[in-house]
Amino acid sequence: MVVRAGDDERPDCLHCVHYFVTWESDRPRGCRAYEFKSAELPSDVVFSSSGERCQCFERKPGAKRKPRLLR
Ligand code: SF4
User: Fold this and answer.
1) Given the CA of residue 16, which atom of ligand 1 is nearest to it?
2) pLDDT tens-digit map of 39-69
């Protein structure tokens, strides 16, 4: 089941199936959907580089029903 965040919400990567943690201290956060690693939360990188919110959020099974707002 694909669940996408609403337009007025920034998706919480920590509840997304595409999020992963790396061993790289300078790039500890990763996104499999967009295929990058970064120091910042991937959804913040997507927003700052494209000007649009992430459209690939998929909630992990068992995660909170509604994506948590980060700001
Ligand atoms: S798909 Fe979006 S919400 Fe999921 S980890 Fe990547 S940037 Fe974050």
Assistant:
1) 4
2) 999 999 999 999 999 999 999 988 666 655 6
Q: For a ligand 1 pocket test, name from 3, 9, 54, 55 the mutation site with the most ligand atoms within 8 angstroms of its C-beta.
A: 54
pLDDT, tens only, 22-31: 999 999 999 9
39 is written with which tokens? Answer: 């120091």
Residues facing residue 59 across a β-bridge? 16
Q: How many angstroms separate the alpha carbon of residue 22 from the centre of ligand 1?
A: 15
55: left (phi over 0), alpha (psi -120 to 50) or beta: alpha
Please report where in the chains the tokens 């994506």 appear, as a residue: 67
